[in-house]
């Protein structure tokens, strides 16, 4: 692989992924709906909802990291969010199939499990939440991520394309931690106190690019600890006491969403924590 396309290359995560790819001497092309002055690579202004534009912009590319999306069910009509995210995902994978691109990394989300944005809040079936937990979204954004993962599975069945969907938890950075309500555990209950430092999100993208996997794989990308100053056992007793299926004993502030499979398959390890960067 020599040339990597990053969709959403002008965004918070995409721009940092591009920087690391360039450090590793890849040629990079950014596909975004706007041009950015914070990245220094070939940029193509493209509407991912236009299939012809997607095909034309990906010609000559060896692999794709697809990060472009509306990242939450807010600020746009729900129908537009769903259509934008799913059509863009399909177009990227269909174009890759036509052009013979064999590896695609897809930005997915832990919102696909349904807890984060649920109009009718509900509890996980068990803890820790791993990739086998049912995906039960009640809104357009989480559903769009489920559909994209199913689309990835279809393309693998069609032609053996390797697609790795990274279910990112809330992406944060060193400048964010001082503003987060760490001492108010009710704030992050809906996301199970789950987060990923942007530096670790970047390395997960690169690790997925390097990994030789077979299939359409879905992986939780989360940190090793929770966004709380309480122990994990305290959080579960206070906020999820009705969940009786505890499949491990949690130590200290250990994460409630499991990243074990990503660590195993990607040879990846998160390194950063809010507790060390405030």
TrEMBL record:
The keyword NAD applies. Pfam families: Epimerase. Keywords: NAD, Oxidoreductase. Residues 4-211 form the NAD-dependent epimerase/dehydratase domain. SUPFAM superfamilies: NAD(P)-binding Rossmann-fold domains. Coiled coil: none annotated. InterPro entries: Epimerase_deHydtase, NAD(P)-bd_dom_sf. Belongs to the NAD(P)-dependent epimerase/dehydratase family. This is Epimerase. It comes from Paenibacillus odorifer.
């Amino acid at each position: 692989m020599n040339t990597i396309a990053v969709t959403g290359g002008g965004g918070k995560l995409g721009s940092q992924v591009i920087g690391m790819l360039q450090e590793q001497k890849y040629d990079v092309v950014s596909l975004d709906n706007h041009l950015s002055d914070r990245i220094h690579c070939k940029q193509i202004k493209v509407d991912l909802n236009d299939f012809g534009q997607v095909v034309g912009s990906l010609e000559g590319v060896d692999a794709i990291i697809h990060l472009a999306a509306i990242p939450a069910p807010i600020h746009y009509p729900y129908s537009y969010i769903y259509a934008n995210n799913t059509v863009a995902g399909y177009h990227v994978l269909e174009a890759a199939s036509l052009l013979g691109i064999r590896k695609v990394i897809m930005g997915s989300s832990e919102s696909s499990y349904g807890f984060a944005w649920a109009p009718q809040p509900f509890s996980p079936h068990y803890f820790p939440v791993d990739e086998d937990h049912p995906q039960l979204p009640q809104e357009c954004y989480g559903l769009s991520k489920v559909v994209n993962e199913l689309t990835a599975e279809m393309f693998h069945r069609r032609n053996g394309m390797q697609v790795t969907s990274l279910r990112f938890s809330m992406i944060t950075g060193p400048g964010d931690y001082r503003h987060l309500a760490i001492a108010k555990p009710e704030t992050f209950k809906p996301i199970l106190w789950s987060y990923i430092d942007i530096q670790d999100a970047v390395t997960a993208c690169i690790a997925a690019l390097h990994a030789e996997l077979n299939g359409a794989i879905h992986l939780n990308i989360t940190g090793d600890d929770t966004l709380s100053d309480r122990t994990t056992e305290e959080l579960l007793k206070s906020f999820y006491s009705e969940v009786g299926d505890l499949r491990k004993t949690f130590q200290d502030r250990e994460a409630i969403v499991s990243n074990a499979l990503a660590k195993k398959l990607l040879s990846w390890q998160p390194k950063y924590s809010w507790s060390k960067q405030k």
